[in-house]
Design brief:
The structure holds two protein chains of two kinds. Chain A is mostly beta strands. Chain A contains one helix and twelve strands. Chain A has a twelve-stranded antiparallel β-barrel. In chain A, strand 10 and strand 11 form a beta hairpin. The longest helix of chain A has 14 residues. About 4% of the residues of chain A have low confidence. The termini of chain B are far apart. By secondary structure, chain B is of the alpha+beta class. About 4% of the residues of chain B have low confidence. In chain B, 28% of the residues lie in helices and 36% in strands. In chain B, strand 5 and strand 6 form a beta hairpin. Chain B has an eight-stranded mixed β-sheet. Chain B contains five helices and eight strands. Classes of the chains: A mainly beta, B alpha+beta. Chains A and B meet through strand 4 of A and helix 2 of B.
Chain lengths: 269, 180
């Protein structure tokens, strides 16, 4: 555990030299270009705490840059919760950039986001996660600062869980939560940028926290990720998420995230 | 006689074509990633009157060559960058000028483009001239305020010619403010 924290600190210090904001576990305040379409497949492999098994989730996602300020995502939720991989629901996500203070080598941007999702799986933990586990909605704001190639991003949001199709939300659990995140990342390679075909290697570290509004229980996770960007339009992320502390019950908090994303520029008018 | 008129017409046309913006150098701001840079590159290549775009990723700059005889709109160039999610930090345009006397705070016509010159000494322009835009949205807010001090004409804040401009001005036409 100590070793892990040490690695995080090292990664964090590196990140302050040259940062990138295409974060792996969170979204930055910046948007996709107008008229572009993105295809994203995210999978998470989390170790189950109570049994010797892995909780697999697959989230196919279609993303659309509607205009310079608004982007929309439509996503599906697939998991092995019911023993075999099966479709469990879908969600819609929107992000609107409402503040943009750009200078040549820096920018400060803020965006508001919201997500509504439906899920039919059983409710098996106190943690609320409407991105693949609970039916419900969330809304919040995210601020991203890029300053002399240092990017920092932070978000705060409200998340509300509803009943999951046939499964009532347990009345003894808190159905709403406050979420907060802090992210930072660094471009490792290439050292010299000359061509869009050069593969980028980015390192990120992010902190993800939640406090349940009903009972004050909370958790805080740290993540470390490696990101490869090919041809400046395909993205491959591998991240590891580790719980730092938790006072709420979570069925599978530690594990890997793997994502592939492809961006189609000028795809729609 | 007819022949002479045709030759004169062709010469006039040739002069006019020559006087159009031929290329531009654009620096985009607010980005560091190659995906962001490529988004701007792709957006610029989509602009109808743009022939080629060459990107310098490290400097976030783009060399744009305009199509011959095409009507160039610098506002459209700017819109492409803004729609990609970023802003224009600097834009320079190049035009071939055949001996034109210019002075500070005055208007000239380059092809079909109206230009208002700011912060310059009186001189003759001849050959390939590089104009640097100083309009709102093409420079930082700080530089915009700086150049505001060089003119009292209202067209600097509106971007359109009005009664404040010289007597040849066509009210309502787009005018770009530039320095040398």
């Amino acid at each position: 555990m100590k070793k892990f924290l040490l690695i995080l600190v090292v990664v964090f210090n590196y990140a302050l030299v040259h940062a990138q904001e295409l974060f792996v576990f969170t979204e930055p305040a910046s948007n996709m270009p107008k008229g572009s379409l993105g295809l994203r497949i995210t999978s998470t492999v989390m170790k189950e705490k109570l049994e010797n098994a892995y909780n697999l989730h697959l989230l196919p996602e279609l993303m659309w840059g509607v205009n310079k300020n608004l982007m929309l995502h439509a996503e599906g939720f697939i998991s092995n919760r019911s023993k075999s991989m099966s479709a469990e629901g879908f969600g819609v996500y929107a992000k609107y950039r409402f503040l943009s203070n750009d200078k040549v080598h820096s920018h400060f941007r803020m965006a508001a986001y919201g997500r509504v999702s439906y899920n039919n799986s059983d409710i098996h933990q106190e943690e609320i996660e409407i991105n693949g586990h609970n039916s419900g909605y969330e809304t919040g704001v995210v601020a991203t600062q890029l300053l002399n190639k240092v990017a920092l991003s932070s978000s705060a949001g409200f998340e509300k869980a509803l009943d999951n199709h046939n499964y009532k939300f347990p009345s003894q659990q808190s159905s709403s939560a406050i979420d907060y995140t802090f992210s930072v990342g660094k471009l490792m390679l290439p050292k010299n940028y000359t061509d869009y075909k050069q593969t980028n290697v980015n390192l990120m570290t992010e902190f993800l926290g939640q406090t349940l509004a009903g009972n004050g229980k909370s958790y805080l996770d740290a993540t470390a990720s490696v990101q490869l960007i090919f041809n400046s339009q395909a993205r491959f992320d591998v991240g590891y998420r580790q719980q730092l502390y938790s006072s709420m019950y979570r069925s599978a908090s530690n594990g890997f995230l793997i994502r592939f994303e492809y961006l189609f520029f000028n795809a729609v008018k | 006689m007819k022949k002479i008129i045709v030759i004169i017409a062709m010469l006039a046309l040739a002069f006019n074509v020559q006087a159009q913006f031929s290329k531009a150098n654009l620096v985009a701001g607010g980005l560091t990633c190659s995906m962001c840079s490529k988004a701007i590159y792709k957006a610029l290549t989509k602009v109808s009157f743009v022939e080629t775009v060459k990107a310098n990723i490290k400097e976030s700059s783009y060399t744009i060559v305009f199509k011959k005889d095409a009507a160039v709109s610098l506002d459209e160039v700017r819109k492409a960058v803004v729609d990609a999610g970023f802003h224009v930090a600097k834009l320079q345009v190049v035009a071939d000028i055949a001996n034109v006397e210019v002075k500070n705070d005055s208007h000239i016509k380059v092809g079909s483009q109206n230009l208002h010159l700011l912060d310059i000494q009186p001189r003759a322009l001849n050959g390939e001239v590089v104009f640097t835009l100083v309009d709102k949205g093409f420079v930082s807010d700080k530089d915009y305020r700086k150049y505001s001090g060089y003119t009292t004409m209202k067209c600097y804040s509106t971007g359109f010619m009005a009664s404040c401009c010289n007597k040849d001005a066509v009210t309502g036409e787009r005018i770009y403010h530039v320095t040398l």
